[in-house]
Amino acid sequence: MKSSIVIPYFNDLEPLNRLLKRLSFYAQYIDQIVVVDASKDPNCHMLCEAHQVTYIQSDQACRGYQLNMGAEQIKSGTLFFMHADARPSKQHFSAITSLDLSQGYYFQFQFSGKSKSIKRIFEQLIKWRNKIGTPYGDQGLVIDKNLFTQAGGFANSPLFEEVPLIKYLRKHSQLKALPIRFLVDDRKYKQQGYWRRGLKNRWLATLYALGVSTETLAQKYLKQSLKNV
Question: What is the CATH number of the domain that holds 152?
């Protein structure tokens, strides 16, 4: 069973280039790759052409909207959503080939780069959050197209776009964690500081839970730099 990959993009050319090169080694597991660009980056378009993957330009810098646009290009089969700085491996694709597609899946969060105690602390905190809350898209989300459509897809929002989809899957006992680590680029945590970024993310999540709109959160706290979320 092959999968189709959807990648939202916003001015992240070098990570995307590395990802597409990596994915070329697993072509036997992949039906289609769709990159949805919200930054109208001509270099992204050229890169996609060079790698012979589908390029779509989004008229909104909104990750949920981008992900849904990408999913619309895929008529059936398994959807594998990942960010441009993801680092999937053969192990992930091999696992997908034998999945029960009546459920949705996510992988285990692990920072890339040299192992450090601060990384291990955050990985454990995220593992705990996943059990009671929402696993985010940077961990890789895998779901059958029919189930994705039935669940209503992602929210067309710039932040927390996964929340309604995950809530639906949990409500219907259709969400499962796969015991495979999924490498997540640590550069943004390094740039902003692990605790600072982690606390900001939790503060945003708290405000969202209290009813503050994602548009307000994006404008006020992220200053429209959605690529850094």
Answer: 3.90.550.10
